[in-house]
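Entry:
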Amino acid sequence: MGHETKEVQGKLMKGLLDLVILQFLNAKPMHGYQIISSIRKNFGVYFGPSTIYPLLNQLAEKGYIKSQWDLGNERPRKVYELTKEGKHLLSFTENSLNHICRKISNIGLRENVAKEIGILQRPIVPSIKRAQ
């Protein structure tokens, strides 16, 4: 069960990686290595530079994040931050994901309610047949 759980979590994380990155950048500007470390620390999944940096470039090209060089440290780093468009995308994506999760959870709920209603909608008093 543990291997399957980790595999499912990895697949979900890969599909939601842009949302996760946007959420981290919504909290504070970060450089790439901070993003990689935060993902690993918070989710227990490792996505390396060959996954994260192309995704950061795509998000920047679409205008959802912007970057600038931080030259104040020993080693220059490109720091990414969320744009106004990125905040809108993040909000829309969160709402969409919540909507999908509600729909998924309601599938089982609707079936259970339908069964209960079906039981409750049976006539309490059996129908009386006409005398022939």
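Residues 122-132 have pLDDT under 50 and may be disordered.
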